[in-house]
Amino acid sequence: MGNIKEVRNQTVVTEFIFLGFSNHPVLQGLFFLIFLVVYLVTLLGNFLILTAIRINPVLHTPMYYFLSNLSFLDICYTSTTVPIMLVNFFREKKTISYEGCLSQLFFLVTFAGCECVLLAAMAYDRFIAICYPLRYPVLMSNGVCAYLAAGSWMCGLVNSLAHTGLTTTLTLCGPNQISHFLCDIPLLLKLSCSDTSVNEVALYISSATFGLSPCLFTAVSYTLIISAILKIQSAQGRQKAFSTCASHITVVVIYYGTINFNYDRPSAGFSLDVDILASVLFCIFTPMLNPIIYSLRNKEVKVALRKLCEGYIFPSVQISS
Hints:
Blueprint: E1 4-7, E2 10-13, E3 15-18, H1 28-55, H2 62-88, E4 95-97, H3 98-131, H4 136-139, H5 142-168, E5 177-178, H6 185-191, H7 197-230, H8 235-263, H9 272-297, H10 299-313
Parallel strand pairs: 3-5
Antiparallel strand pairs: 1-2, 3-4
């Protein structure tokens, strides 16, 4: 059952055992290979996006400033869970210490909350660009972009500090088995033998503040954006306006779709495999898809990546478009 200390006749959990993927022991090698490839693709794709934006002056605009923050977030987010999961595929006893579990939870909540707010900030950027193009340089100045990005990180950090602090107040008496491959707030609440009402209220408030509110803000922004685009007279103008939003709205739909499937579905009636699949889609595959979506659907990013590959990575190879 792992390490469980007995202090003054009360058991205290000092170590957790992950049960994720335990239903398929013969597939451990295949899972390791798949997730390793996905992780490497995620790192490479987001790193290329970051580098292309950094070295290409054409991409030094608010939209790509936010995109570089998103790419950095995705690198951090996936690196919080995947490395330890890959290591555990080779361990008979898939454990994590109590301190390690809290650290993973802290970074997961920080990056998830930050990304929710950042995607809303990106929606605001597209709203200003489409609905108020003449005022765009003023309303989305470098200072405003910096404040929005910093605010996103601050929201994620403050939210995470609150939840992590509340989690440390829980008494975890065992069992010390987590039916997953990562540490998350709802999973630890199930293991608590103390009152979790405050934690649950905080979780609901957080879900509304950092989950529902940015989602609704983004939905309203795109309602106004689509309305403004439909008023454009020329078909070419409408197509150009839609193309500037296509990548972001695709990322938003995938992100909020997977996060809602992961957290807002009923807990009863779902097997361990379904729980694992939901988190894999949200925590592992979504960070990989973001750079692919922006590469495929954004002409400026495609041109920048091609120049990056031709000039720095494969200088002797001309990559056709």
